[in-house]
Amino acid sequence: MKDHNFVNHIRPRFIPDGVLTILYTFCLGGLSFLAFVILGVTGFLLMFHYQPGDGTGFGSILTIASVIPYGRVIRNLHYWAGQLMVVTVNLHMLRVVWTHSYKSPKQLNWLIGVALLILVLVLDFTGYLLIGSQESGAAATVAVNILGLIPGMGMGLAQIMFGEPSALSGSTLVVYVWHCVGLPIFALFLQLYHFWRIRRDGGVRPL
Ligand code: HEM
Question: Among the atoms of ligand 1, which is closest to the Cα of residue 106?
């Protein structure tokens, strides 16, 4: 019988044998979520001093790293947690492939995982644009040009994602809002659904 009690769901009285075997998962999904939490906390702190915009993005990062107390530590934590998450999410996906955990009944969670992977990569990319350096501007130009190749809606998509494509340093207000609010909220809810599905699909253990 299915248990509909939410408290029992997040803290069940018993779990199936074998789901805590660390050598099966290497806790790569858990590590990805830990990185996500660190990114959320440090990203929130960075928002107090970061100023998006063509001329201001790069300068405000220099201020954060050299003037604001603990700014350098917080920025480095944010940067390295982002890199770690890209690595652990990819390794987590490889583990899922290795253990054939994408098969029925877990196929929906695999697809949710694919969406999460794309979100993590887009978050990493938009974070890189917010540095506001010449390289970020070049990366934004390349992305806008690639999106522009999509017939009919390409330039519209580029504008939704990057704002006014003519003013490119990478650090536009539109990219900032996507990176700090839109994408993380979407990723958070998708991860919560991912976790809920794991339990509903019978837990993490060999099929
Ligand atoms: C934000 C990124 C992600 C987070 C935080 C996350 C988190 C987790 C966690 C905590 C688990 C439990 C087992 C474990 O730790 O390995 C899990 C299982 C699973 N994940 Fe992810 N995941 C993410 C991305 C992905 C991706 C990219 C895929 C595949 C495309 C994926 C597919 C799955 C599947 C199919 C399971 C069930 C595995 C099983 O039952 O053995 N996840 N995920």
Answer: 35
Ligand 1 site, residue 51, Cβ cutoff 6 A: no
Q: What is the DSSP letter of 15?
A: -
Q: Provide CATH code, domain 25-200.
A: 1.20.810.10
pLDDT beyond 70 at 171:
yes
Torsion, CA 86, CA 89, CA 90, CA 96, rounded to 10: 180
pLDDT for residue 20 is more than 80: no
More confident residue, 37 or 165: 37
Quote the CA–CA distance of 165 and 144 in Å, as a whole number. 7
CA-based radius of gyration for the chain = 20
Q: Which residue has the tokens 């075997």?
A: 21
Phi and psi torsions of 97, nearest 5° = -65, -45
Closest CA to 82 of 173, 183, 162, 161: 183
What is the domain partition of the chain in residue ranges?
25-200
The Cα 116–Cα 111 span in angstroms is: 9
Quick: pLDDT tens for 34-73: 999 999 999 999 999 999 988 899 999 999 999 999 999 9
Ligand 1 atom nearest to CA at 30: 10
Pick from 79, 199, 62: nearest CA to 128: 79
**Average pLDDT value for residue range 119-143:** 94
